[in-house]
Each structure stands twice: as structure tokens, then as C-alpha cells.
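#lab-general

N.A. 3:47 PM
ok so I finally got the sequence cleaned up, no stray characters, all 259 residues accounted for. can someone with queue access submit it? mine expired

B.Y. 3:52 PM
send it over

N.A. 3:53 PM
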Amino acid sequence: MKDINSDLLIDKTETVISIDGLHKSFDDLIVLNGIDLKLYRRENLTVLGRSGSGKSVLLKIIVGLLKPDKGEVIVLGKHLGRLDTAELNTLRLRIGFSFQSSALYDSMNVFQNLAFPLVMNIKGISKNKVQESVEEVLSAVALSEKIFQMPAELSGGQRKRIGIARALITKPEIMLYDEPTSGLDPITSVEIIDLINEVQHRYNTSSIIITHDLTCAKNTGNRIAMLDDGKFLKVGKFEEVFASDDERIKGFFNYNFIE
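B.Y. 4:20 PM
back already:
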């Protein structure tokens, strides 16, 4: 894995996501129970937790796909609870979402998958600009030669890369990664980890990386937030978080592999 010191990029004077007192339940199931969190400009923040701990729900609230029961979420200076549909859609153009499944359209080739967000969201965009943008993000994820292939012809790691490219194509200020290394072999996981770090440097993004993979967390996160039972147990550097005597944190570490 590449040793990229991204701490030098972070601007702690600017908060791009601010979450205060966030609660979310589904019927009697409490998923998030009083979450407080800040993401700084050009920071990679990794949210760690077991499956079902509420990590993906947190991302969906940040992009306005779910509404919190209580609490305040401010993204790029916008209070999500005060935005109408048009304002929320405009804000989403500034956020790139890399889905766990990559979420590519099976009936479209790679070029069409990448062009789709531009054509749908930017009125009057020229064919030359679309072509230029697609070629740029494909180059960034090192898959230029796959431009006319179908998703079914790609490996799992390649689909992940194309999914990240599609999230990047609108040049977002914030990137959200949902389990970016899930289902990948160790070598491909390292490639995705390196790509996440390269994106942070090349595009100056601020990112939240949702994962239960400690190798991914350790090598992408400037800070780690450990989520359990609807709350953050600890937030800090990887070594600080796992130096804890909290049995819930120690147990999570003991059941994962760190290279």
C-alpha cells in the first residue's frame, strides 16, 4: 500500500459535514442513538462497525435519502432539514456516493454509465465535455481501456473502480464510500485502498469511508470513528481508538485481520 501522508491536506478550520445529536429508529429498533461528528475539509474519516450497526444508515441520512428522527445535519453549510427537493438535489451534485454494489446499469456500457450523471444533471452539456469528463475519470481509476465494455465483462474490483469513477464525474467536494473493499480479494482491496487515497490527493475531496475492514480503515482514515449500539465509542487516530480498554472495541479488533 502506498504511504500517502494525507494529514497535511486537512483544513481543520473548515467543517464540511457537521452532525449533532442524530437519532434514527425503525419502529422499535434504535439504529443511531445520539451521534455527534465533524468532517473537515480534505479529511478521510473512516466509520468502523459491525454489520447492522447503522453505518450505511448514517450515509443515507447525509445525502438526504433518509430523514433523522431528531438532530441536525449540516452538509457544505446547508441544513438538510431546511432544504426543499430542488435544493437537496443541487446539494447532491456536490457529493459523490460510491455504493457497496457499485450500482452500475447492466444494460449500459462503461461510457454510458459514466456519462449518465452528467447528461441527467447538467443541462446543455456538450458531447465533447461528456467525452472529456469520462476519459478523465477513467484515467484516474486506471481503466481507460474498459470504456466500451459492459459491467458483466468486468471483475469485481473493476466494477468498484468504475463505481468510484462515476461518483467522481461531477467533481464532488465530498465522497462517501459504502464498504469499498467488501467482497474483494486482499490484493484487489489494496488497490481500492490506494485509489481512495489517490482520490483524496488528486481531487481534494473530503470523505467518509464506511467499512468493517480494519486494513481499509487503518490505511485510508485520517481519523477513525468506532460505531457500536447506535453510538460512537471513540473517535481518533487508528492507534488511539484501538488502544482503548473498552471490551467492545478490543473484541472488534480481535476478530479482524491486520496486515
